[in-house]
Design brief:
Layout: H1 2-28, H2 33-58, H3 69-97, H4 105-138, H5 148-162, H6 171-195, H7 201-223, H8 225-245, H9 273-279
Helix pairs in contact: 1-4, 1-6, 2-3, 2-4, 3-6, 3-7, 4-5, 4-6, 6-7, 6-8, 7-8
Amino acid sequence: MHMLLLSLNFLLMMAMPLVLATMIQRRRRPGWGLFGIGAVTFVASQVLHLPFNRLVLGAGLLPQDTAVVANLLILSIFLGLSAGLFEEVFRYLAYRFWAKTARDWGQGLMLGAGHGGIEAILLGLLGGINWAVMLLVERGGLRAVLPPETITAAQTQYAVLMDLPWTMTLFGALERVFALALHLACSLLVMQVLTRGQWRWLPAAIGWHGLLNAVVVFVNAQWGAVAAEAALGLLSLGSLGIIWKLRRPPVEPEPEPRPEPPRPRLRPAELDEEAIERSRFL
């Protein structure tokens, strides 16, 4: 049962974004190009995001003892905000300089599906490859080509996965569902910077992204994966609310009526006695 569910978990992680994008395409026709733009945007953001995290953490700029709740909170906030900052700024740059015509709800959803979708696909692919290696090692394969320490690590990880409650074997796919909702919401939030001409929507996207990531890191470290998934699920209701709220374009205020031009004042004709006398015969 565990082997089947874990295999299904990684397959769902790779398949769900494609199913979601297909549904968006059928309903809204935004074009698959936006899915690709979102995917490239995510990968480009990680080129700077991951080295930045390693640099800060390696330099000892943050507290190391995460057994202290305050230190764990600081680390969680840092990891959350760094993810939000890099990904949402890159998402804005994609809208501003690449997807210049992507300004409606369906197009924003497709770009978000590509951004969060490639993350799910890559995680599912890497997880699936590791899972396949573990299965082969457990059955005696690859022992002639892998170093002993790798074989030991694979066996240990396999035993850990087999000891999981069956209800947790699909947590990877469940987390990707919540993450996709976050990326759709943030994609629409960032798009408002350009559709409404207001910069406040970019910090809103960064903050919402950072909040969800920080909560997951903190709750997972404090109370475990089940509590973290529950917290993420509750916060994802907010993501769905953002998606629903932004489903229509902003209502533009009606233009104020222009004041009527002043009417020319006619000067009364000057009448003399001769004009009055002539008018008697008209």
